Amino acid sequence: MMNTTAIATVAVTTVVALLASIYTLVYLFSNQPRSVEPSEQVSSYYDYDSKTIKKAQLPQTPLHKSELKFSIVVPSYNETERIYVMLREALEYFAQNEDYSKEISTAKDAYEILIVDDGSRDGTFQYVLDLCRQDEFFAKVLSTTNGVIRCIQLSKNRGKGGAVRHGMLHARGEYILFADADGASKFADSGKLITSIQDKTESGKAAIAIGSRAHMVNTDAVVKRSLIRNILMYGLHTLVFIFGIRSIKDTQCGFKLFNRKSMLSIFPFLHTERWIFDVEILILGIRKNIDIHEVAISWHEVDGSKVDLARDSINMAIDLVVIRLAYLFGIYKDN
Ligand SMILES: *[C@@H]1O[C@H](CO)[C@@H](O)[C@H](O)[C@H]1NC(C)=O
Question: Transmembrane stretches, by residue range (predicted)?
C-alpha cells in the first residue's frame, strides 16, 4: 500500500503535468498579429482637384491626438458585390449632416472612410477607387463635404480582426467606427452611437458604443436565418457567456464605435485576427474598466456572408477559449 507522501507526490505531479499541457496548448493556439509591410502603410485615394489617384503615407504609429472628427474603418474581403450600398448610405448621411464638414480641425479632410482591403481577389481595392472616380454621387458628396475614401491594401489576407486592427491603428478621427461592408446596419445610427459617448469623450474619458441587435431576437430578421445558422449562433453565444462576457448581450455586431482614448487602450493589444476578435475587444475593454454602451440599432440580414459556419465555428470556439486562458496565463498582455 502506498503511503500518503507517495499519493501526494503523484497527485501534485499529475496536476503540474496537466497545467503544463494546457499552457502549452494555449500557447500553441495563441495568435500574434503579423508584422506590417511597408506597402500596407500607404493609402490610395482619388483626388478631385487633380483628377488623379494619389497615395499618402498613413500615420506610422497611432496618433495621440485626433486630426478630424470621424473615421470609419471598413474591413473588406471580396466586397465588390456589397460595398456600394454601404458606402452610398454613409455618404448620404454625410451629405445631410453638415456638422462633419464644418468641424475641420488640423487635417484637410473633414471625415475619412478607410477601406481595408484584406487581400481580396475580386478587385475590391480598385473597385472602390473607380467608384470615387466615376460615380457622380460619390464625387459630389466627397468634394462638397471634404470627405475622403482611403483604400489600403493588405498584401496578404489577415482575417477580419487583423483588417479592423490595421484600420483602427491608422485612423485619424476622434471617433472611430468599425462598420461591416455588407451594409446590414443602418449607417445613420452611427449618430446615436456618437451621442451615447459624447459626454465621456468631451471630458477626456475612454468609452465604447456598440451596436446591438438584442432587441430584435424574435423578429423576422433573425427568425428567417436558417435553422443551422441559428443553432450555431446560439452555441456561440452560450460559449461567450461561459467565457465571461455576461454584461453585454450582442458581442458580434459589426458596428462598434470607439473614441480615440479607448482605441488607444485596446487595439495595440488585440491579438485575434480571425472572427472572434470582437470578443477580445470587449474583454480588453472590461479589463481596462472602459465604459461600454450598448445601443439598439436597425439591422437586416444581407446575403453573401464570408463566414463558413461549418469550418469557422470550430475555429471560433478554439479562439474563444484561447483568449480567456491566454490572458489568465499571461501569454496575452494588455499593457
Ligand atoms: C474571393 O474572390 C475570388 C475571385 O473572385 C474567389 O476565387 C474566391 O473564392 C473568393 N473567396 C471567398 C471566400 O469568397
Answer: 6-29
Is residue 10 included in any domain, yes or no?
no
| Mean pLDDT comparison of 36-40, 96-100, 313-317, highest-scoring range | 36-40
Look-up of cell digits 473615421: 71
Does residue 307 have its Cβ closer than 6 Å to ligand 1? no
Q: What is the pLDDT of residues 46-88, one digit of tens each?
A: 999 899 999 999 998 899 999 899 999 999 999 999 999 999 9
Ligand 1 atom nearest residue 120's Cα: 1
Q: How many CB atoms lie within 10 A of CB 312?
A: 17
In-domain check, residue 227? yes
Q: How far is the CA of 119 from the centre of ligand 1 (A)?
A: 10
Separation of CA 309 and ligand 1 centre (Å): 16
Calpha distance 267→167 (Å, rounded):
10
Q: For residue 20, is it within any domain? A: no
Q: From ligand 1's centre to the CA of 226, what distance in Å?
A: 23
Counted domains in the chain? 1
- pLDDT classification of 3: cutoffs 50, 70, 90: confident
Does 124 sit in the ligand 1 pocket, CB within 6 Å? no
Ligand 1 pocket member 122 (CB < 6 A): yes
Count CA atoms within 13 Å of residue 141 on its CB side.
Answer: 24
Phi, psi of 128 (to 5 degrees): -70, -40
**Is 180 inside any structural domain?**
yes
Supply the CATH number for residue 234's domain: 3.90.550.10
Which atom of ligand 1 is nearest to 308's Cα?
A: 13
Going by alpha carbons, the residue nearest to atom 13 of ligand 1 is 306
| Enclosing domain of residue 219 | 35-318
Cα 306 to ligand 1 centre (Å): 10
